[in-house]
Design a protein that fits this description.
Structural class: mainly beta
Shape: rod-shaped
CATH topology of the largest domain: Immunoglobulin-like
Number of strands: 22
Oligomer: single chain
Order of helices and strands: EHEEEEEEEEHEEEEEEEEEEEEE
CATH architecture of the largest domain: Sandwich
Distance between the termini: 121 Å
Helix content: under 10%
Strand order of the largest sheet: 16-22-18-19
Strand content: 25-35%
Number of helices: 2
Length: 367
């Protein structure tokens, strides 16, 4: 309601004498004001800063403002409402989402995007909704690394690299220092079943790095041509053909190679040490190569070699009487100490009648 003004007379002249005092009282009426001033009684633009007390302490709830909005000065130095934008409103539970950030840009406050998809970069600010049991969900502000990767420019060299193997190059990118990788740092080779295996690391056809897996003992890597892959070949594999005997006949065993051997040598290996007077002098492990078994005064004897894709074979020729081998040191001269001596008289042959052959076995060395 508006204001109500009531005027009361100062003196009632309806009776009594008219005196000077009565005249003075009548000239002073009483004015009473009731009610209150409403919006209709206040003219527009009639209240300014001068009419507001310095300690008015107007509470925020007295201000009419759109929900979840801010008041900010506009270009005309007048308060303006800064409202949330729907561009940042879409987010699901436990999901990162783009957001806007109110930033002092030097001349004004601006709501800036933190999504770097349009301008490039690696790190952006996102909002994260944490679903809390009981319904009291909470938003968090977090850093999000684009593509879940960091560039070398984001990391301090002294805190992230050892400078012995990994360094930053002139372009600010991580690189491996020359001679910076120790062989123990290389990935352990495993076969298709995930089992650690031994092998050769090499460059194959087209320059591709490959592993040649070792499958047997005594294997060497062999080139496959000017631009071909390597393959493994067995070199110097020992095949046991069994006990040696002076009786003529065959000795055969599977060599285990993947093809026909290109080289085969037959040797006698001592299996029992024989020393002392009249002994052949060989000790266990000694080998005799290029065996022909013949003394100049006896019938020729020897071994013939044969090999195919599966077996290596030795044919022992000559009879028992024709097989003789030189003693280890040839006799009295040379001897075990001097290893010297010349002439036919310095060679002494082991006597077959002592069955020295029982101290040996036949080996084939195949490649």
């Amino acid at each position: 309601m508006g204001l109500s003004i009531t005027v009361q007379k100062g003196h009632d002249f309806s009776s009594g004498n008219v005196t000077r005092a009565a005249l003075n009282a009548g000239a002073t009426p009483t004015i009473a004001i009731t009610g209150s001033v409403g919006a209709s009684e206040i003219a527009a633009l009639s209240i300014n800063n001068a009419q507001i007390k310095a300690d008015a302490a107007i509470v925020a709830t007295k201000l009419a403002l759109t929900a979840d909005s801010l008041i900010i000065g506009d270009e005309n130095n007048v308060g303006s409402v800064l409202s949330p934008t729907s561009a940042f409103s879409s987010i699901g539970n436990d999901v990162d989402s783009n957001c806007g950030l109110l930033v002092d840009t030097g001349a004004k406050f601006e709501l800036l995007k933190t999504d770097v998809s349009e301008i490039g970069g690696h790190i952006q600010l996102t909002k994260y909704l944490e679903t809390v049991e009981g319904g009291d969900d909470r938003f968090w502000l977090k850093l999000s690394v684009v593509g879940e990767t960091l560039g070398a420019s984001h990391l301090k060299e002294e805190d992230t690299v050892d400078k012995l193997s990994i360094v930053k190059d002139a372009a600010g990118k991580f690189s491996i220092r020359d001679n910076g990788v120790h062989h123990q740092k290389l990935y352990n080779y495993r076969d298709s079943s995930g089992n650690p295996k031994a092998g050769f690391l090499y460059y194959g056809s087209g320059g591709t790095a490959k592993v040649l897996e070792a499958t047997d003992s005594n294997q060497v890597a062999v080139t496959g041509g000017a631009n071909g892959d390597f393959s493994l070949k067995t070199f110097g594999k020992t095949v046991d053909l069994g006990a040696f005997t002076t009786e003529q006949g065959w000795r055969r065993a599977a060599h285990g190679l993947t093809s026909v051997p290109t080289s085969v040598d037959l040797v006698l290996e001592c299996i029992t040490t024989d020393t002392g007077a009249g002994a052949h002098g060989y000790t266990a492990g000694d080998r005799i190569y290029d065996v022909n078994g013949g003394d100049v005064d006896t019938e020729a004897a020897g071994m013939v070699i044969h090999a195919d894709a599966t077996y290596v074979t030795a044919l022992i020729t000559g009879d028992g009487d024709s097989w003789e081998i030189p003693k280890k040191y040839g006799g009295d001269s040379p001897n075990a100490e001097t290893h010297s001596g010349t002439g036919s008289g310095s060679v002494e042959w082991a006597n077959n009648s002592s069955k020295y052959y029982e101290d040996f076995k036949v080996l084939a060395i195949v490649s």
